[in-house]
Structure to design on (251 residues):
């Protein structure tokens, strides 16, 4: 569980709820038609923008915002160094026997052990990285678009409420409550956009950036192995991706 994400959403929603409860009756902030306009409108516009499979994939990916299960770049560096040592000691036969839970490492080892030339390895792994980035971009874009749609539908709901309010100007006592209800949809849209959709899109972008860095470490490590680089040189090259304060020293 990612503590930062959990703390952020709990603290943010908690502060909003506290402010509402301290200021009066919570029921004043509940308006079913307004919720229908904002939530339903946002989902409808999203489904109009993206294929259903992309939307479903995005909602599934949102779970990763709260997951701390990510490969450590230092681990990737030392994994590639170990593969380099195996190759220098046992040759391609030793590399072919290597097992890894990381699909990208497995593919890199397979290409090298099968005797593929450096260009073929580079092209294949580059396509893999680019395809992953494109898939992740679509997921991020779903939430980025929802981040834009929610406030827009909040404003639409407010305009509907204002029209209904102006239709009843003959009754001055109803103007205040009607104005409050009209503004609620703007509130709903802002909360969804700036507390849910925007942060999720941002966190998924950060997760992708780290994953791309890990894949690039593996890519450069595989390239170094094909060039028969020594482990020290591999370490110096791959550790450059990691801030010096976070690097694990080579023993």
């Amino acid at each position: 569980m990612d503590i930062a994400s959990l703390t952020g959403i709990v603290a943010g929603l908690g502060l909003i709820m506290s402010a509402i409860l301290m200021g009066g009756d919570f029921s004043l902030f509940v308006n079913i038609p307004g919720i229908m306009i904002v939530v339903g409108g946002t989902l409808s516009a999203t489904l109009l923008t993206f294929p259903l499979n992309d939307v479903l994939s995005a909602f599934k990916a949102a779970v990763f915002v709260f997951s701390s299960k990510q490969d450590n770049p230092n681990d990737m560096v030392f994994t590639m160094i170990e593969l380099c040592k195996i190759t220098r000691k046992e040759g391609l036969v030793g590399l072919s026997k290597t097992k890894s839970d990381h699909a990208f490492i497995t593919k890199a080892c397979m290409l090298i052990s099968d005797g593929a030339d450096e260009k073929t390895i580079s092209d294949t792994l580059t396509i893999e990285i680019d395809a992953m980035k494109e898939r992740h971009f679509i997921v991020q874009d779903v939430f980025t678009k929802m981040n834009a749609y929610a406030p827009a539908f909040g404003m639409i709901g407010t305009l509907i409420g204002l029209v209904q309010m102006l239709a009843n100007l003959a009754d001055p006592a109803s103007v205040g409550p009607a104005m409050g209800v009209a503004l609620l949809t703007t509130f709903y849209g802002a909360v969804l956009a700036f507390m849910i959709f925007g942060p999720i899109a941002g966190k998924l972008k950060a997760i992708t950036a780290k994953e791309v860095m890990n894949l690039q470490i593996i890519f450069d490590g595989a390239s170094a192995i094909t060039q028969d680089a020594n482990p020290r040189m591999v370490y110096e090259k791959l550790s450059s991706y990691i801030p010096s304060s976070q690097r694990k020293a080579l023993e």
Q: What stands out?
A: The CA atoms of residues 131 and 137 lie 10 Å apart. The chain has two domains: 1-30, 31-251. The chain has a mean pLDDT of 90. Residues 31-251 form one domain.
